[in-house]
Amino acid sequence: MSLGRIYLIGMPGSGKSFFGRKLSEELDYQLIDLDKAIEEKEGRAISDIFADSGEVYFREVENLTLKEVSERSKHQIISTGGGAPCFLDGLDYMNAHGITVFLETKRDLLIERLAKKNHRPLVQGDTEKRVDELLAKRLPIYKKAQISIAHREVDLLLNAIKSLKN
After folding, report:
1. What angle do CA 67, 145, 108 make, to 5 degrees?
2. How many CB atoms lie within 10 A of CB 14?
3. What phi and psi, each to the nearest 5 degrees, are found at residue 144?
4. 58 φ, ψ to 5°?
5. Which DSSP symbol is given to 78?
6. Which pLDDT does position 128 carry in this prediction?
7. Rounded to whole angstroms, how far apart are CA atoms 101 and 114?
8. Among 157, 20, 148, which residue's Cα sits nearest to residue 91?
9. CATH fold of 6-158, please?
10. What is the DSSP letter of 86?
11. What is the pLDDT along the chain (166 residues), one digit of tens a residue?
12. Backbone angles phi, psi at 47, to 5 degrees
């Protein structure tokens, strides 16, 4: 059974890359990490893109790259950056071209995970404050995903995806 393209969305630190690997193994689908695809295309790190070219430029490249990688195959999982659904027509595009899965993650867990990392440009500085600001802006958009899950059970997600396809 072909489930089609699957987009994983959620906050930085929500586990999109980790869950994408698990889902990719289970379905034998290619896993695309959108941030890595952007870095390869640009030849520089996301943090450098933000620093040198700004967020507006990054969002344009992100949106274009999302569409380019989506066209490669209908049998892939795309782990998006946290902002990909929230800018330009990101979530609308994903909903029209595949199944969107929002990985819900508790605020405190996000803060704990992100405080350990220094390569995420939008959560630099006061991590708690930045997470709260991003959650306030992004949650309403994330909640428009076709599936929202708070668990990390691959079998439960596959069942939810299959029920959408029937």
Report:
1. 110
2. 22
3. -90, 5
4. -55, -45
5. E
6. 84
7. 21
8. 148
9. Rossmann fold (3.40.50)
10. G
11. 567 899 999 998 888 988 899 889 988 999 999 999 999 999 999 989 999 999 999 999 999 999 999 999 999 999 999 999 999 999 999 999 999 999 998 988 888 887 776 555 555 667 788 889 889 999 999 999 999 998 778 888 888 888 876 6
12. -60, -35
* CA distance linking residue 96 with residue 82, whole number of Å: 19
* Rounded-to-integer distance, Cα 100 and Cα 126, Å: 30
* Domain extents in the chain: 6-158
Of 109, 105, 110, 103, the residue nearest 131 (C-alpha):
110
- Phi, psi dihedral angles at 72 (to 5 degrees): -70, -35
b (16+ CB within 10 A) / e for 22-57:
bbbeebebebbbbbebbbeebeeebeebbeeeeeee
| Cα–Cα distance, 122 to 154 (Å, whole number) | 29
